[in-house]
Design a protein that fits this description.
Structural class: alpha+beta
Radius of gyration: 27 Å
Number of helices: 3
Number of strands: 5
Order of helices and strands: HHEEEEEH
CATH superfamily of one domain: Nucleic acid-binding proteins
CATH topology of one domain: OB fold (Dihydrolipoamide Acetyltransferase, E2P)
Shape: globular
Distance between the termini: 76 Å
């Protein structure tokens, strides 16, 4: 085989592999050195105050306050590009604290959000009748992932015979009970 073709093939293969590798958006590209799991933080909430994290998950609630907005998130595992795995397991919930107003129509329930920031405090709030401790992450950078369409898929009409109740009768029977 021609060595020139081998080199071109290798360069093309590497270019395709690099092109397929996904990079996180710039706002969430910083991965903190420690980045503890939410499970570890929930076991000893006070110990992790000031610790930087990159967490993400599914939005469950948006609460606008006078100077900030709290977004309650069910944490999910993150892919290499920082996007939460929608059907992934959760190890709990946390609150992402943003400065200013966040529109609940844009940051709607069910959307995926990834944040980078530091654990600022903890708060205890009810989920149903259960009193839950939420770590509060003071957000430095965030990325709201595009909404996924939840349609069932393309529509394929049923075949004509599906609607014809007399279709299965063999000839010479009448296929339709019509009067002509």
């Amino acid at each position: 085989m021609n060595p020139f073709r081998v080199v071109i093939f290798i360069i093309t293969a590497v270019a395709i592999a690099v092109g397929c590798a996904s990079k996180p958006p710039a706002a969430i590209s910083k991965i903190p050195e420690q980045n503890p799991s939410l499970t570890r933080v929930l076991l000893d909430p006070g110990r992790f105050i000031g610790t930087e994290v990159r967490w993400g998950g599914e939005i469950t609630k948006v609460e606008n306050k006078t100077t900030q907005t709290w977004i309650e998130i069910v944490r999910r595992e993150l892919r290499t590009d920082g996007k939460p795995v929608a059907s992934g397991n959760s190890d709990g919930r946390f609150i992402a604290s943003f400065e200013g107003f966040i529109d609940p129509v844009v940051y709607e329930t069910g959307r995926l959000l990834t944040v980078v920031g530091s654990i600022d405090a903890n708060t205890s709030r009810p989920i149903g009748e259960y009193d839950y401790t939420f770590p509060i992450v003071s957000v430095e950078g965030s990325y709201l992932w595009k909404a996924v369409s939840r349609t069932a898929g393309p529509y394929y009409p049923a075949p004509r015979w599906h609607y014809d109740l007399y279709y299965h009768y063999p000839w010479p029977h009448h296929s339709h009970p019509r009067h002509y």
